[in-house]
Amino acid sequence: MLYSHRVAFTPRQLSELLRDNNHFIMVDTRSAAAFTEGFIPGSLFIGFEGRFIEWAVNLLPAGKKIILITPAGKEEVCVQLLTDAGFTNVAGYLEGGFEAWKDSGGAVDMIIDVDAGELAMDIPFDENLVVVDVRRPVEYAEGHVQGALNVPLIDMKDPGNIAHLNERDNLYLHCAAGYRSVIAASLLKMQGYNNLRNVTGGWESIKHTKGITIVKEPAALN
C-alpha cells in the first residue's frame, strides 16, 4: 500500500497494515482515561494533552512507521507536532479514531483503573500484588509505597529493564498523577503483561491514603 503523510486509514486498511506489525506502531494520543477504557491492542499511549513530544522522542522506536489514533479533530495537529519535532515516519492516522475502529468490530483491549483506596484494601490480601512506581529515582527516594519496585518510565523502552517483572504477579502501576503510569501500562501490554492495574491519581492520591505504608530512601532524608 502506498501512502504519504496525513493519510486517513480506514479501520479495514489499518487492520491490513497491522498484519505486518514489525513495520508499524500505533500511537494513541487520547486522554489517559479514554485509553484505559478501551484501545486497539498493541497501541502505545502518549496522550496529546500531556508531555506528548517529550515522550514521543524518548519512547518511539526508530525505523517504524507511526499511525496515530487521536481525539476527534486533533489528527492534523498531532501529525504536525511530530513532523515539527523531526519525525519523518508518520504514515497517517485512523479515520474516525478509536470509535470507528470499535464500530467496525475491531479487537479492543483495556486497562483496569483502581484508586488509591482500592490499592490500600488490596495490599494486605493479595500476596501476588506488586506496586510498580514508574517515577524518576529522585521522586521515588523522596517517598514511596513500602516494597514498591522503582522502574522509571524512561527505562521501560528497553525490554531488558522489565524482564524481572513476573507476568503472573498483579502489577499496580503508578506515577505522580496518572499520565506516565498509563504510558507504562501500554508498554507492558505490548510486552505481554496483562495482570495490570493503573492507580488513578498516582502518588498525589496514594500519599494521602490511609492503610498504605510510606517510606523514604535514607539519602533523601539528608
Write the topology of this structure:
Layout: E1 7-9, H1 11-17, E2 24-28, H2 32-37, E3 44-45, H3 52-59, E4 65-69, H4 75-84, E5 90-94, H5 97-103, E6 112-114, H6 116-122, E7 129-133, H7 137-141, E8 144-145, E9 149-150, E10 170-174, H8 180-190, E11 196-199, H9 202-206, E12 214-215
Parallel strand pairs: 1-5, 2-3, 2-4, 4-5, 6-11, 7-9, 7-10, 10-11
Antiparallel strand pairs: 8-12
Helix content: 25-40%
Assembly level: single chain
pLDDT < 50 runs, ≥5 residues: none
Separate helix tally: 9
Describe the structure.
The protein has 222 residues and is an alpha/beta fold. Helix content is 30%, strand content 19%. The chain has 9 helices and 12 strands. The protein has helices at 11-17, 32-37, 52-59, 75-84, 97-103, 116-122, 137-141, 180-190, 202-206; strands at residues 7-9, 24-28, 44-45, 65-69, 90-94, 112-114, 129-133, 144-145, 149-150, 170-174, 196-199, 214-215. The strands form 3 sheets. Strands 1-5-4-2-3 form a 5-stranded parallel β-sheet. The chain is elongated. It starts with 6 loop residues before the first strand and ends in a 7-residue tail after the last strand.
